[in-house]
Amino acid sequence: MSATPLSREATVYVAGHHGLVGSAIVRHLRAQGFTNVVGARSAEVDLRDPAAVQAWFEKVRPTVVVDAAARVGGILANSQSPVEFLSDNLRMQLNLIDTAHRFDVERLLFLGSSCIYPKFAEQPIREDSLLTGKLEETNDAYAVAKIAGITQVDAYRREYGRRWISAMPTNLYGPGDNFDLQKSHVLPALMSKFHTAAVEKHSQVVVWGTGTPRREFLHTDDLAAACLFLLEHYDEPGPINVGVGEDLEIREIAQIVADVTGFTGELVFDTSKPDGTPRKLLDISRLTGLGWKPTITISDGIRSTYDWYLANVAQA
Ligand code: GFB
To answer: Where is this site: Important for catalytic activity (predicted)?
Structure first.
């Protein structure tokens, strides 16, 4: 598809604008000259409530919608609360997407996750491996909700000609993450654990699982840039992967975080905690083929995220 620039005056509604992903998208859109980027906190507009979503759209009348609203969490939160991860995500995305259709939204970007792909998908994971095998059990509820979202977006394209798209980011990190040890993803959890251990001079840090699963990490500033790029350069059904094209073992990631935080003690692996999927490296050739690539290296990204953590969380 040739480039179709969005008007910088368009009303862009970023659902989930206060979260890790949504806040990065808002920053990027404003930096790129968008003058009418809107969002609402969940206390103001509960996306699980269809009437609240209808009233919000009546008020702001967006022409572009980015759906970065989701109940998210790390491996433990996903495996302990499958009902909430399924029900809340289905409700939020259903209300948003149906309402976007009623209000004739021109461009909509639905964000999913690399966990939609089969647990043992061929690596790197191509978009066409969707629904070709069993899902990873620790996050199947979340994955099914996200697969339903992709299907809904595609259904609107097929039945009503909507130029709406779905992007599947790999594991994400960046400023504004959730650092709660029970609910968070691995990177913020390790940052918090290693920081405390370095400051309090502990001799050991416990890392969950065997340390051998491999994960790919994308900084949310890169994801935000990819989202705008896709809205202006992509118009196809099905998911498109967004990643960096490289992954690391969890033990290697833990060592990078240890080095950044100044922790010099021992890493202990708690194998009573789940490993999750052994590997989920995305094939990003569809995206890079369109002319986009990530710019933030994992070491720079972890360093700057740790600086943000020190300024905003550790001190709090
Ligand atoms: O980031 P994470 O929670 O999610 O865990 P997933 C990745 C890997 O890091 C797993 C290990 O092998 C964990 O066992 N790990 C080591 C830790 N130490 C820790 C720790 O202190 N905290 C955490 N959280 N993990 C999630 C899905 O899967 O990824 C979601 O559950 C979503 O649905 C998200 O797709 C991107 O990569 O395993």
So the answer is: 113, 115
Active-site positions read 142
**ipTM of model:** 0.97
Helix locations, 122-280, DSSP H: 140-160, 186-199, 220-233, 250-261
The whole model's pTM is what? 0.97
Query: What is the atom index within ligand 1 of the atom nearest the CA of 209?
Result: 14
CATH superfamily of 12-177+216-244+280-297: NAD(P)-binding Rossmann-like Domain (3.40.50.720)
Chain-centre distance for alpha carbon 27:
16
Measured CA to CA, the distance from residue 128 to residue 116 in angstroms comes to 11
| DSSP code at position 125 | B
Annotated binding site: 16-22, 111-114, 146, 169-172, 185, 193, 208, 215, 275
Task: Please identify which residue in the block is written with the tokens 């690399």.
Answer: 114
Residue type, 58: E
Tokens coding 181: 């040890």
Any ligand 1 atom below 6 A from CB of 89: no
Decide whether any atom of ligand 1 lies within 6 Å of the 275 Cβ. Answer: yes
Domain ranges of the chain: 12-177+216-244+280-297
Q: What is the pLDDT of residues 226-274, one digit of tens each?
A: 999 999 999 999 999 999 999 999 999 999 999 999 999 999 999 999 9
Which residues are bridge partners to 110 per DSSP? 67, 166
Query: Burial, 264: exposed, middle or buried (Cβ in 10 Å; 0-12, 13-18, 19+)?
Result: exposed
Q: How far apart are CA 278 and CA 241, in angstroms?
A: 19
How many CA atoms lie within 13 Å of 59's alpha carbon, on the beta-carbon side? 12
